Amino acid sequence: MESQDAPDALEAQRGFICASFNQDTTSLSVGTKTGYRLFSVTAVDKLDCIHEGVECPDVYIVERLFSSSLVVVVSLSMPRRMNVYHFKKGTEICNYSYSNNILSVRLNRQRLVVCLEESVYIHNIKDMKLLKTLLNTPTNPSGLCALSVNHSNSYLAYPGSASIGEITVYDANNLSTLTLIQAHDSPLAALTFNASGSKLASASEKGTVIRVFSVPEGQKLFEFRRGMKRYVSISSLSFSADAQFLCASSNTETVHIFKLEQHSPSQEEESPTWSAYVGKMFTAASTYLPSQVSDMMHQDRAFATVRLNMFGLKNICALATIQKLPRLLVASSDGLLYIYNVDPQDGGECVLVQKHKLFDSSEEQVEQIEEEKPEDVPPQPSSQSYAATVALPSTPPSSTTLMGYSEDGGAQKGEVIPEHEFAEGPVCLDDENEFPPVGNQTN
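Given the sequence above, the corresponding structure tokens read:
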């Protein structure tokens, strides 16, 4: 059952539209009806709002580059235009317009990728020049794609088919296709790389099975079963930084955490328990059973789970190490960020340790767990959901032809920075660990 309570006026006014974690899960970006907000998620007990942008309303895509000052924003009022801001200076670095609505944006220190329904644009993030346009890609209405955060390979994954779960893995550095992976029988619903880009996880629209593949080989490494009773809509997949764990959230009340470990045959032989004996019997029997039944026997179940106090609300999840302990973060369309402790040894049910309001204007943003009541979660209309950096289907932007668009598949660059000024010098993004990605803007 979904808990019910009246949402406060501020929350109703600002209106949660989308959310995304940055590449190393140190920051949370939230798009709202009034703009966007950036939060630091490096502590459990407090949630610091780094920046609140009001340059444009109805933000349905907001992506931050690591802990730099570069943020990419797309608004429902101009869904074909991507704005790149230096948020600490309050300046626009550049903007690009495209042939159709922007459905998602992905970025690392080397590449910026813009996904439309039937095309993908790859930019060099250092000067924002368009390097490659992948035209006539299979219809991708949700803008599903994943970009490796490891800029040394910059692998890009997107659907290779609109009817089955085929994945195209593309090398965005060398601008060439690496491999095609036949991942699922049904169309894809979620994709994510691990931090190094050596593993790719996927889920289909059925949402029952999650598979992990090696990259660039495309070999299946792991297969996890999320459930059998019902089909669900997987809203996010995320690896831990060490790629030992994978979490999956959906439109149900349960978040699953899977452990990526190879089962050693020698260990089973050394522990002649009843369960090990039964396991061997099932393995032997599976050779005589139909392939679907045999596959189910070899699928691992969740290592740990979280029971959310909500149902039907979309959310995103991420695994992070905060204050030296493993945590699960869940940002939900109810306007809350939930933080759970994860037991890396024994798994089991994760413990909720903190809950933060994303729209509370008071200094005290933390709601202590001991004060929690089941009815504390405010309801949200089904249309107000985490968009996974995809436009909300309830408010489809206009699909009229964009004036000035180059029909050869290129993108129209805005007038903010003349072409020759891109290379005049790097802009400081207030993070000495970041490679400055964009040239300086002259006034």
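The two ends are 55 Å apart (CA to CA). Try to locate this feature in the token string yourself.
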